[in-house]
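Quick board copy: two proteins, each given as sequence then tokens.
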Amino acid sequence: MLAGKSNPPLQAVRIQSRDLDDRIDWLIDEIQRGKRDPYIRKLAGQILSKKNPDGSWVVPERNWEAEAVAVFDYVRNNVRYTRDIEQVELYQRPARSLEIGIGDCDDLTILLASLLQAVGYPVKLRVIGMKGQRVYSHIYLLVGLPPHAPAHWMPLDPSRPEPPGWELPENQRGLLKDFYVEDY
């Protein structure tokens, strides 16, 4: 977390619509706001600008995958996956997830996408449902590598204990829908 932050208390938001597109639109709006938040951009810069004792960068410049993984690791190591309030679907803004240190898959996705976009990475949101189910039940993101002309979209799911690049195998997934996070 960043020291010296003195904003008023942050609030979680409850979305009333059950429509997937409405919910995704709200998440994308929050990612757009998050990536422009000076607090989020500063944090992304701090994650990537750490130096070794010899003065070299911990994450080498222009090593796109290493940068994306460093941001992913930061989110995974600093915000604990925790389920929402019983029978209430909440969506948290990125700074709120950092402030309280917990969030579910959508909260972690909003935070991770905001941090990555704040330092120039394109992202897509991937929403899935389990095989045999008719509802979407999980969200994570795909980051475009290299960021200026993506040839590969690497899955990043900070709500799971698996490494970067992991996603639920196709034979266990049913529904799948991707949403590109475009700017306003």
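And the next:
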Amino acid sequence: MTSRNLMLLGLALPALVNLTGCLGLSGTFNPFAMGPFTPIPVQPWMGDRIEEKYDLRRDFRTPIMPPIPEGGPLPLCEDPPTEREILRALARVTRGVPYFYEEFKDDIEFVTERLVDRIDPPRFYPLIGPAQLHHCHWKCTVYWTETIQSDYPFPVKLQKRRVEVVYIDKDHLHLCVSNPKAAKEITRELTAY
């Protein structure tokens, strides 16, 4: 071994020994002693952002439904937006600093009202083929109590009743086919019936 390699080994060995425990040879605390298992502080709102990025991305895709049966009743928009969809459409609560400024929404009430329920004539959609667009538009009124709170430098708590209206579209496509046998096959493939 060359003298250069021996010198590097001599410098690396004490550094490795120093990283092996919570207290190194010098007796000081080493925060990275756990190696890859060292805990990393994460903000509380980070989980919500990750959920929005990965779990909720399919919420904004237009669903493709089976064909509308000939001679049967037209489908209705019977599923109003969920409370989760409505809350995501509202303006977010301000992310404050604990004890200095915090904002909350309490006593939330939802009222949904169907505004539009109509089906367009068939047309060709790229990547889908011939289909009919079913328009389902909802008016969602949300009532809540807004609470703004601060505990420092002196305690203050303000509460005010709020109202906000959100319009949500839950449009979807119904495939169109020319013969009834193909309609039954497509319906069976899409719904497993």
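Board note added afterward: The first helix runs from residue 3 to 18.
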